[in-house]
Design a protein that fits this description.
Low-confidence stretches of chain B: none
Strand content of chain A: 25-35%
Structural class of chain B: alpha+beta
CATH architecture of chain A: 2-Layer Sandwich
Distance between the termini of chain B: 20 Å
Oligomer: heterodimer
Mean pLDDT of chain B: 92
Helix content of chain B: 25-40%
CATH class of chain B: Alpha Beta
Number of strands of chain A: 5
Distance between the termini of chain A: 31 Å
Number of helices of chain B: 4
Strand order of the largest sheet of chain B: 1-2-3-5-4
CATH superfamily of chain B: Histidine kinase-like ATPase, C-terminal domain
CATH topology of chain B: Heat Shock Protein 90
Strand order of the largest sheet of chain A: 1-2-3-4-5
Largest interface: A-B, 22 and 25 residues
Helix content of chain A: 40-55%
Mean pLDDT of chain A: 89
Number of domains of chain B: 1
Shape of chain B: globular
Strand content of chain B: 25-35%
Chain lengths: 128, 151
Amino acid sequence: MINISTTGGVTIAELSGDLDHHTARLMRTDIDRELAEKRPRRLIIDFSSVTFMDSSGIGLIMGRYRIMNENGGDVIVARPPAYIKKVLRLAGVDRLAPITDDPRDLIPEDFYKEKEAEKIEQTAPQTT
Amino acid sequence: MSRPPLRPLNEMTLTFPALSENERFARLAVSGFLSALDPNISELSDIKTAVSEAVTNAIVHGYRDTPGDVMMQVRIFKDSRISIKIQDKGCGIPDVAQAMTPLYTTSPEDDRAGLGFTIMETFMEKIKVKSKPGKGTTVILERTVQGKKRL
């Protein structure tokens, strides 16, 4: 599963569930479409809801790094759980895409404002 | 490391077609079968990752050009030693040593990182690979499960 949005030149891809060869193909298609349309300067991939990851996740990050790097942008790996960090370190991914446990400073403020607005919109009909 | 005794205490064998949606099934089947050993989260995650790599290799590389079945056998021995065999009857690997080299991949266009065997070697204690071009590949992964109670 994947949730993607772009605000202020930053694309945030929130991944969830298992990340293997099967699901990576679907996630890759969605991310690459967003990158081609929005041409962001930064891609943040949020791993906090990923329940499993094998080397397909490494391939996913490295492939997106190549795309972003060609256009002078960067890739940030955000909030990976411990068992995912182990795979990331083994592959030395952090040399290309820095890993952070707290990506808030890297995300434009508008992103949260828009998310908040969405939430209010969604919950409004239920409260009235 | 001593060789496991020949008679397993428990074992299971699964056969499934080489479809990518079965990668998840293979991981869940292994973790379900090994739950009797009460593995801790870290070792269960290591085992699932190694199994995922071996099964994905069989599907992506072994059966690259032809459909076929993947066979997976999990055996539990004395002292919580486990052995997991993943076998395909696909195209085989002409040069096993080269295939096991970190970052070596024959499918860079598909975003394969070339780290499958590296992960299997790192996350398991022992790995054996037998392969014959045109006949298929067998990977045997072994390790001990410490479990939660004995930590």
